[in-house]
Amino acid sequence: MSDLSDRELGMHRNITRRDFLNGVAVTAGAAMLPWHLLAAADNDPEKSPDYYPPALTGLRGSHPGSFDAAHSLRDGTFWDAAGTPQDTGEAYDLIIVGGGISGLSAAHFYRKLAGANARVLILDNHDDFGGHAKRNEFRVGNAFRLGFGGTFSIESPAPYSKEARGLIDELGIDVASYPKYHDAKLYRSLGLRSKIFFDKETFGTDRLVVGPASLGGGEKDYSASDDLETLKQFLAEAPLAAQAKSDLERLHHEAKDYLPGLSSTEKKAKLARMSYATFLRDVVKVHEDVVKLYQAVPQPLFGLGIDAVPAQDAWGFDLPGFEGMNLDPAPGKGMNRDAIPNEEAEKYFFHFPDGNATIARLLVRKLIPDAIAGNSATDVVLARANYAKLDSPASPVKIRLNSTAVRVKHVGDAAGAKEVEVAYARGGKVYTARAKNCILACWHVVIPYICEELPQKQRDALASAQKVPLLYTNVALRNWTSFQKLNTNAVYAPGCYHTRIGLDLAVSIGGYECARKSEEPILVHMMKTPCKPGRPSREQHTAGRIELFNTTFETMERKIREQLTRTLGAGGFDAARDIAAITVNRWPHGYAYEYNSLFDSFWVEGGETPCEVARKTFGRIAIANADAGAYAYTDEAINQAWRAVGELKS
Ligand SMILES: Cc1cc2nc3c(=O)[nH]c(=O)nc-3n(C[C@H](O)[C@H](O)[C@H](O)COP(=O)(O)OP(=O)(O)OC[C@H]3O[C@@H](n4cnc5c(N)ncnc54)[C@H](O)[C@@H]3O)c2cc1C
Question: For residues 603 and 428, what is the distance between their CA atoms, to the nearest angstrom?
């Protein structure tokens, strides 16, 4: 892909610990260690004073060792190596599978109902709690930098429910106070703007060009006239065919009804069934360069490009082409909830430096006060979690990490059973524990493998819950003078490996100070959604997931170094010198799958949705997780926890 040598890219540099296990063992996805050999050497790693997952770099997210037992279960090989499970003799009021925000919220809601002494065990297969809401820490010289490994912020296209908002309040997060902590003007005051990087493989030349918001530049503080000015500059500099440029102008300035003679409802019905790429190509009839330019714009929300995003949703996002179509502003049938604007929801936003890992950490502090010191939603930002306290005999609530639930079943007949038995794999062995009730707050695709007694229709619905694969990469830089020289803080790169690059949001809170000067170390966030344009959405996600599992960290690192060099080289960026550490948060099972009017006919036609079938309580087993609402947001993880707790038997 590039002529840059490994030496020029700094591949030889000793950056903070790389994950050699992945680089060596997980090459073609096949050469993984069997689950029962992983970690067998140390059965209680969390008790070590050195155990501190947020500071690990290299390949994180679904890290090596976290998925092997579940994949072995899926492949039908797990029980061959498992032997007879060892009974821990532990009895709980509630066992929760999944230590993400849904599982942690479920524990919190349950204790409010059952009392603070209720005995709760939370199992999670990862080495850290929080599910997608993970914290990445870096030290660069004397600077401490915090990053989000997954969930970025409190935000949702629709307003938070009473329960979700109530929980945020209870955790002490004052959402309205956010402007106090966010220096919203910092980058603009330094003259930095959103830009677009054209790569030579897709557009014939490498070029960084100023990007108007309507072209995926994405800055919300642009005024409309500012955006038109930027569009002019963009059109002058962009390496696009002359026809594409005139089509772009037409798309932005010509308010034309492209579907004349139809009512607003008829138009929306048509737009719901055609992709935005088809709309641009076949209805507006733009040059192919325009389609390429917009291809990756919706990826941060959908994990898909415009080939698989309905034109009706594109209208909801304010993408161009609909100005003259006289569409009634009410949402059309089958619109994705992400695409329905809501002013109240837009105002409810809060970004902690580690994203919603702060919510997970505040929940853990409520459940196990000894594990995280302090008492406010601001002092938690710098508080170091004590992982040795998460699974302590003294605490009624225990969080057992590195533990994959492999079988969940009622003790006796589901209708009359008084207990549920949960078997879990940990440190190469299998253990069992019992509880009066169980909540499965884990990914729905896993549930059919671990809970075989569920009705077949429900198992099918659970299995249909796709996950959207994503890479959230944090690169710690020693300085960001190259960004300053190129006058940019955010880059959209439609043809590149990571399609978004951005300097960390300038948030200082609870004693944590963000970088304000370009000579200071900073985190750069990069995002990739490994989709396969042209295929149906679920197939794209499956193919992307396989791609992520089959890509070594070394390959990802080379791509990161290469892309940053090509994008920022003219500003003096030197990958070998400037990069201090890299953490790639790999989420093959990322966002909950949201229904799509192009591929899910029930979403347009109405009727029971798969997630409603999937989340039905069965005996003493209730089902939570954001998957239960087919909605990839923190508030949904909380809503579903609340519902699941309410459905438990006494
Ligand atoms: C990269 C990314 C960015 C996001 N950004 C935002 C955002 O900015 N704002 C927002 O509101 N939402 C965001 N979301 C969505 C949001 O993170 C989720 O909706 C929410 O955190 C999901 O919480 P959850 O507990 O339902 O699931 P998860 O966080 O996935 O937690 C489920 C846990 O169960 C574990 N598990 C699975 N199987 C087993 C098993 N057999 N045994 C034990 N444990 C198991 C999983 O490993 C996981 O840790 C983002 C999601 C991703 C992936």
Answer: 42
Residue 369 is predicted with a pLDDT of 98
Pocket probe for ligand 1: among 108, 132, 361, 446, the residue whose CB has the most ligand atoms within 8 Å is 132
Of the chain, the end-to-end C-alpha distance in Å amounts to 60
| Residue that is written with structure tokens 């696009």 in the block | 240
Residue 35: the pLDDT is 66
Pick the residue whose CA is nearest to atom 12 on ligand 1: 633
CA 441 to ligand 1 centroid distance, Å: 9
User: In this predicted model, what pLDDT tens digit does every residue of 540-586 receive, in sequence order?
Assistant: 999 999 999 999 999 999 999 999 999 999 999 999 999 999 999 99
* pLDDT at 8 (0 to 100): 81
Amino acid residing at 480: W
Q: What distance in Å separates the CA atoms of residue 202 and residue 370, rounded to the nearest whole number? A: 53
pLDDT of residue 223: 45
Asked whether 153 lines ligand 1 (CB < 6 A), one says yes
Residue 326 and residue 264 in contact, taking contact as beta carbons nearer than 8 Å: yes
Give the pLDDT of residue 16: 57
What was the pLDDT predicted at 30?
A: 35
The residue type at 551: T
What's the angle, vertex CA 343, arms to CA 340 and CA 346, rounded to 5? 85
The one-letter code for the residue type at 639 is N
pLDDT at residue 11 in the model: 86
pLDDT score at 221: 40
Is ligand 1 within 6 A of the CB of residue 588?
A: no
User: Which of 434, 349, 531 is CA-nearest to residue 94?
Assistant: 434
Taking CA atoms only, the protein residue closest to ligand 1 atom 30 is: 131
Q: Label each residue of 436-495 as H, E or C.
A: EEEEECCCHHHHHHHCCCCCHHHHHHHHCCCEEEEEEEEEEECCCHHHHHCCEEEEECCC
For the CA of 637, the closest atom of ligand 1 is 26
Instruction: Establish whether residue 97 lines the binding site of ligand 1, counting it when its CB lies within 6 angstroms of any ligand atom.
Output: yes
Rounded distance between C-alpha atoms, residue 350 and residue 111, angstroms: 26
Closest-CA residue, ligand 1 atom 6, reads: 151
Residue 495 · residue 292 · CB < 8 Å: yes
Tell me the C-alpha distance between 335 and 191, whole Å: 37
Side chain identity at 86, as an amino acid letter? Q
Contacts of 467 by beta carbon, 8 Å cutoff, 6+ apart: 443, 445, 541, 545, 588, 589, 590, 591, 592, 593, 627
Residue 537: both structure tokens together: 């959405």
pTM: 0.95
Distance from the CA of 640 to the center of ligand 1, in angstroms?
Answer: 13
- Ligand 1 contacts CB of residue 72 (under 6 A): no
Regions of the chain short of the pLDDT cut 70 = 1-3, 12, 14-42, 213-226
Q: Is 634 in the pocket of ligand 1 (CB under 6 A)?
A: yes
How far is the centre of ligand 1, averaged over its atoms, from the C-alpha of 89 (Å)?
Answer: 30
Q: 199 C-alpha vs ligand 1 centroid, how far in Å? A: 33
Rounded CA separation 233/266 (Å): 37
Smallest Cα–Cα separation from 436: which of 23, 76, 91, 63? 91
| 465 Cβ below 6 A of ligand 1 | no
Quick check: CB of 423 below 6 Å from ligand 1?
A: no
- Tell me what pLDDT residue 3 has: 67
The one-letter code for the residue type at 464 is S
What's the pLDDT at 26? Answer: 35
